[in-house]
Fold this protein.
Amino acid sequence: MYKKSFQELTTHELYRLLALRTEVFVVEQNCPYQEVDGKDLTADHYWIEADDEVVATLRVLKTQQPIAIGRVVTKPGHRGNGYSRRLMEEAVKDFGSKTLYLQAQTYVEPFYESFGFKRTSDVYEEDGIPHVDMLREAESET
């Protein structure tokens, strides 16, 4: 598993992270939207590689309040191997002392509940996909 701030990423690493996110969120889910949104600049990026390719990634927007976890994605053909779970475990370990926020596609809501996230909104559509807002209260604010 790798973890780097935006400034620490190599051009090659950044390209591979953005390529995976675009492959799934824009192409596979057929959601034309601005994937490169400027938020990566202040994020911590987590990813897992297998067979010399990025197979899962997420980002933590640590400068916003509450801290947000987003762009959690696993490459087609590599799903079901626990990669997203490992990434979430690491992000929650690193930032769990703070309140955490995420927007979840409704079909993965139980996955995020397993990390202590609770739904805080009604279902809403984003890019034609049902989502909910979820919050994980701080273990102990520091």
Q: What stands out?
A: The mean pLDDT is 95.
